[in-house]
Structure formats: C-alpha cells, structure tokens
Amino acid sequence: MKKIILRLTFSFVTLGFSSVVFGQVDAKILNWYNGKGPGMQTEKAYGKLKGRKTQTVVVAVIDSGIDIEHEDLKGKIWTNSKEVANNGIDDDKNGYVDDMHGWNFLGNPSGQNQNDVRLEKTRIYARLIDKYERLDPNQVADADVQEYELYKKVRKEVREEKDQYEQALKQMEQLPMLMQMVPEMVKNSLGKSEYTLKDLQNWKPKNDQEQGIRDFAIAIESGELSEEVIKEQMDQINSMINFHLNVDHNDREFVGDNPYDFNDTKYGNKDVEGPDALHGTHVAGIIGAVRGNGLGGDGVAHDVAIMSLRAVPNGDEMDKDIALAIRYAVDNGASVINMSFGKGYSPNQKEVYEAMKYADSKGVLLVHAAGNDAANVDETDNFPSSMYAFQTEKLNHYLTIGASTRNAKTNLAANFSNYGATKVDVFAPGFEIYNSVPQSSYKKLQGTSMAAPMVTGAAAMLKSYFPTLSMAQIKDAMLKSAKSYKGSKQQKPGSEEMIDFGTLSTSGAIIDLYAAAKLCMEMEKGK
Q1: Are 336 and 365 in contact (CB under 8 A)?
Q2: Contact 309, 62 (CB under 8 A)
Q3: What end-to-end distance do the CA atoms of the chain give, in Å?
Q4: What does the alpha-carbon distance between residue 419 and residue 287 come to, in Å, rounded to a whole number?
Q5: DSSP-derived 3-state class of residue 499
Q6: Which helix (H) or strand (E) holds 437?
Q7: Strand 498-500 to 304-310 pairing
Q8: Which of helix, strand or coil describes residue 33?
Q9: pLDDT > 80? residue 461
Q10: Angle of CA points 238, 239, 243, to nearest 5°
Q11: In the predicted model, what is the mean pLDDT of the chain?
Q12: Of 56, 78, 266, 423, which is the most exposed, with the fewest CB atoms less than 10 Å away?
C-alpha cells in the first residue's frame, strides 16, 4: 500500500496515517535532501564528478502511476523504442500493446482503471468467511487449523480497525467547529485576540487544557490543520471504511483477470498515469526531476529514463501485479526498480520472490521502502521482504530503506519510519520532501516512500557515471560509504525512548552520495 499519511499530531486527535504536509515551502525545506549534514551531499557529488560523461540509466517506478507530462519530468520519461505509439499492435511482441512508457496493471483494454481496493487482510477475510463464519471451532479439520487461525486473526484486525476509523471519522467531523472556537480559547488563556505563530510557540501553558489549546492553535496557524487537510484526512478515512476494510468490495471490477492465476497475464492498458498519480509522480520527481531549473525540488539523478509501472492502487497491491511489473521492468532494460509500497500480508509470497530473484539474476537493483508504521520489521511482517521465511540467503541486489530527517541531534530517524537491525539496510531523507505531483504542481510529502527513491536516484546517478560497475558493486559502495551514526543517541520511531541509531539498520548510517562517488572512482580504477 502506498501510504500518503496525514499525521495530525496535536492533542485533540492523533491518527496514524502517513504523510502529506501542507503549507508553503521555505528555504530550509527546498532540496535539503541534496545538501550537507543529514542530507546526501548530492551537490558535492556532482561537483566531484564534473566533466565526466554519463550514460542514461533506465529506472522503473512501480507505483500509483506517473504524470509523464509533468513540466519537471520533461526528457526524463522512458520511451519504448521498439513500440509504435497507438497503433493497437504489440510491435515488440512483449505481450503489451502500445506500451510506450511502461504499463498499467490496474486497468483493462477499454481504458478503465481500478483505484480503490481492499487491504490484503480484508481480501483474506472475505475469501475465508464463507468457509469458517458458521463453523464450530471443534469442527475445523486438522489440515485447516493454520488457515482457521489466519481467518480469526484477520477477522479481528479488520473489525477492530474498521471500528477505529469509524470513531476517528466522528472526531474529524467535529474539527471544523472546534477550529472556529480556537481564537476565543486562545484569547481567554493567552490574553491576546490577535496572535502570531511565534506568540503561540513562546506560550508556556499552565495545564494540560492550555497545552491542548496551544497545540491546536499552532496546527491551525502553521497550516498543518486546515479545511483542506481535514477534507483529505476524511477522504482517507472514508476510503478505509468503504474500500480498504470492506469485504464486499470488488478489487478487480475493471481489471477482469483472475488475480491469483499468474498465467493470466493478458490484462492492463497503456495508461501509465491512471486516476491518482500523486504518489508515483512525487517518487519519480525525487529520482529524476530536472535539476537546476528552479521548479520544485531537484531530482537526485540527472541522466535517467523513468519507466512507469502502475501496480499500486489506493489500498493494498496484488502480489501478481507486483511480480509481473518486476519482470516487465527487467525485460525492458531497467537497471534499478523503485518499490515504495508494502503490506502486512502476502498470499503469493513465492511468486513475488521468484520475480525478485529473476531481477537479482539479471543484476537489477531492487530498492524497497521499509514502511511507515514505526515498527521493527525484524519482528513485524512488511512485504515484499528482503528475507522470506522460506529463503536460505538474501538477494544480492536488494535494499530496504528507512526514512531520516534534518534533525541529527535527537530525531534523525523519522518518527513514522519502520526500522530493523537485520532487515533495514540504510536510512535516507524521507521527511518533508518537496517535489513533483500531478498537473505540474509540487507538494511536501514524507514517508519511507520518499526515502526509497532517494537511494534509487543515488544508485542511478552512480550507474550513469560509472557504467562499467555492476549494480551490486554500486549497492556495496553506497552501503560502505554511508555516513555512520552508530553511537548517536536518537529517538526511537514511535516512542520517546532514546536509543543508538546504529541499532535501527544493518549499516547504522545514512546514504552519502559524495562519499559513494569517491569510492566508485576508486573501484573503477581497480577494475
């Protein structure tokens, strides 16, 4: 699932979604991820490599779709040179008709697109409900015990989560009225009828009630809370209730295939943008938005061709779509595949793994977002995974990325980021990232979905400058040269506990593109 989270952190309501940040972009936000300190030193890396020639690198983005006509992605979109546009013929005989810029695995040949779908646990619940709903536990056959336990688990999760969001919706409906009351409450407590954001930040509340009023007022004054934010938050909650957690919703109404038959591949269409490309367009911009043109944020990689593979809907992606998208990317020349999505259940894990193993065998780097649940993925499932239960060894071309912030003092790991001493490889900037969204617009978003394309862009940038190095060598160079924060006491995501940043990933570090470029230069000489 692509999580675009609205996290309202004031004390009146706290909802665990992942992150769209509203408000005007300022100098400290714009391109911070390419800078020094906790940034990736991208600009310094380009300075180091000045004068060297590059080769274009194809990067596949498996996501919600990309606005391929975005002003800041001009010249950055992959084109299938073996296909003739809009002639209704599969010219290159790859199984996909008119796939000029990638493929949409969430549509049909008539041009209809699927967008709102269920969570995987809801699908599992729906698939098993008729079998077990009226069955006495004592009647469960020995061969079905494991499946029955899974049924009980997902039933409990779906019901409880649906109830949680129904309650949250009721809270959200009260916010507009509360917003109108805030100025008077601030006046009564602070003694000012006219106040600024600075006034509110300097206010020292005397009790919990005043603290709540202060936090609420700051959220309004800063733009974190507005009618637009409330509407987007309520739309997401309604999606959770009406689609994600609705056992009766038809996931493949417009697609028309059998999503559990991996031989049923004749589906989809050429519409690589789809109805909601915000997430994918932002990811694409982080990887390769035009650098130095003064529009939005600069992409990490200069010489890339971005392939759009629409396979991530509003809800949980299907394993089949992901597996086929990975294979498409590999077969059509991608060197790096960005995977800014994830889910807690995966019924067809082995098929996805086989697709990733295929990419690994072809030397294609897979970059996956760690997830936004502030969870330890060594203990909590988040699929795809760097290490499935049936695996005997890790893939050579796979990276899992956590999200870091600009605050290297105490909050270097973003408070929403997943982590893991064995399953997360490295961190990269994923907090308040300003970049492209559809209709040639720009917005701040945050999440590990933004951190993954930082690393994808870094890998593509290095490959473009060092084409003789393999993606495995480039991956190793990025990890070995990443800036270590081992020993640095930082706040653990999702809590106030202070821990060693080095325990949050295998490297205990943040990507440093300048250091990686220097190391690649040394490796190049040694070839």
Answers
A1: yes
A2: yes
A3: 41
A4: 22
A5: strand
A6: strand 433-437
A7: unpaired
A8: helix
A9: yes
A10: 120
A11: 93
A12: 266
Domains and CATH numbers, the chain: 31-117+260-525 (3.40.50.200), 121-244 (no CATH)
Nearby residues of 113 by Cβ (< 8 Å), 6 or more positions away: 104, 106, 107, 254, 269, 271, 274, 275
**What is the pLDDT confidence band of residue 284, given thresholds at 50, 70 and 90?**
very high
Which residues fall within 8 angstroms of residue 428, CB to CB, at 6 or more apart?
A: 33, 40, 401, 402, 403, 404, 451, 452, 454, 455, 458, 510, 511
What does each C-alpha distance from 472 to 377, 379, 482, 514, 521 come to in angstroms? 23, 27, 15, 18, 15
- Spatial separation of the C-alpha atoms in residues 417 and 110, rounded to whole Å: 39
Spatial distance between the Cα atoms of 209 and 189, rounded to a whole number of angstroms:
10
**Type of residue numbered 514:** Y
H or E stretch at 449? helix 448-465
Global pTM reads 0.92
What letter represents residue 392's amino acid? Answer: T
**DSSP H helices in 483-527:** 513-525
pLDDT confidence of 29, banded at 50, 70, 90? confident
Distance CA(367)–CA(383), nearest Å, equals 13
